[in-house]
């Protein structure tokens, strides 16, 4: 830990720069630096890593990353109102913070940071799942990052770790768990944020597996999962008919009951089906 004397209260930063949360950007600020310290400590050793922080806002999590010795922090911030307070942190920790005023969904983050990389964020509620999907569905695996530590709404966190035959099991559960170990580290009360959201949050960590848990063609698997859960109340023989007119026969050959609904299938079964459908897709 270093340069504790340069840490400032986030409430003072918000007041000094008249910062306002924007509902359109899903912004909720963390005021408690003890909480951001706790998040950073779950990331493991960071002194030998470059850290990509998505949406630093007024800089609470950024301060904790720098305080605990991150080698370098690359902060991607879309909202220009935060550039001035983040510039203060750049001056307080010279050479260790680079702020990029861009939309994370419009760039390839891998081009802005050198390995080894860890990624962290108090994710904007409105685009959090899309940011996650972009990072865990990259073509090359293992990915360019060593772990992801993200804050999600509690209900989203529950979906990420759900198992089949449960109501919260779905596309996010499968895509996340297929390629990584997913753990809910701890819950965060809504009162920890300003403005106070309507639901509690959870910190979730993703550690990439050396290879996916089951062999399957990525694009076909994603297509099947998206179609299946897009009509989750329909039987698979109906929701997947658009993929192949003989889908019922393919399901049966794959030892999957065509009358099942998607939440009843395990990740292994989805992968088995993807392998059966891949040759069919290649012929189209």
Structure description:
By secondary structure, this protein is of the alpha/beta class. It has two domains: 4-208, Vaccinia Virus protein VP39 (Rossmann fold), CATH 3.40.50; 218-283, Helicase, Ruva Protein, domain 3. The protein contains eleven helices and nine strands. It has a seven-stranded mixed β-sheet with strand order 4-3-2-5-6-9-7, with helices on both faces. α2 packs across α3 and α8 crosses α11 (267-283). The longest helix has 17 residues, at 267-283. The chain is elongated, with a radius of gyration of 21 Å.
Properties at a glance:
Helicase, Ruva Protein, domain 3; 7-stranded mixed sheet; alpha/beta; Rossmann fold; 284 residues; 2 domains; two-stranded antiparallel ribbon; single chain
| CATH class wording of the largest domain | Alpha Beta
CATH architecture type of the largest domain: 3-Layer(aba) Sandwich
Structural class: alpha/beta
Superfamily (CATH H level) name of the largest domain = Vaccinia Virus protein VP39
Low-confidence stretches: none
- Outline type: elongated
Q: Could you give the distance between the termini?
A: 57 Å
Range of helix content: 25-40%
Q: Mean pLDDT score, rounded?
A: 94
Strand content: 15-25%
Specify the number of helices: 11
**Element-level helix/strand string:** HEHEHEHEEHEHHEEEHHHH
Q: Work out the count of structural domains.
A: 2
State the major sheet: 7 strands, mixed
The CATH topology of the largest domain is given as Rossmann fold
Strand order of the largest sheet: 4-3-2-5-6-9-7
- Output the radius of gyration: 21 Å
How many β-strands, per DSSP?
Answer: 9
């Amino acid at each position: 830990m270093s340069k504790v004397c340069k840490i400032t209260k986030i409430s003072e930063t918000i007041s000094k720069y008249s910062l306002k949360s924007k509902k359109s950007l899903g912004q909720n600020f963390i005021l408690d630096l003890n909480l951001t310290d706790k998040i950073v400590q779950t990331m493991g050793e960071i002194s030998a890593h470059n850290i990509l922080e998505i949406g630093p806002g007024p800089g609470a999590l950024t301060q904790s990353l720098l305080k605990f010795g991150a080698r370098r922090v690359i902060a991607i911030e879309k909202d220009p109102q935060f550039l001035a307070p983040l510039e203060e942190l750049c001056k307080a920790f010279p050479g260790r913070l680079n702020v990029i005023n861009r939309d994370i969904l419009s760039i390839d983050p891998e081009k802005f940071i050198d390995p080894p990389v860890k990624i962290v964020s108090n994710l904007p509620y409105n685009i959090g799942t899309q940011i996650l999907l972009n990072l865990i569905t990259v073509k090359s695996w293992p990915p360019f990052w060593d772990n992801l530590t993200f804050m999600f709404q509690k209900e989203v966190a529950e979906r990420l770790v759900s198992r089949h035959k449960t109501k919260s099991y779905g596309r996010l559960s499968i895509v996340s768990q297929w390629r990584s170990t997913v753990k809910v580290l701890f819950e965060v009360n809504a009162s920890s944020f300003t403005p106070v959201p309507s639901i509690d949050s959870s910190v979730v960590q993703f550690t990439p597996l050396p290879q996916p848990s089951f062999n399957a063609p990525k694009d076909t698997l994603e297509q099947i999962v998206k179609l299946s859960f897009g009509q989750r109340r329909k039987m698979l023989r109906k929701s997947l008919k658009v993929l192949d007119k003989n889908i019922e026969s393919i399901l049966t050959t794959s030892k999957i009951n065509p009358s099942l609904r998607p939440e009843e299938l395990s990740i292994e079964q989805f992968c088995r089906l993807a392998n059966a459908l891949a040759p069919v897709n290649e012929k189209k």
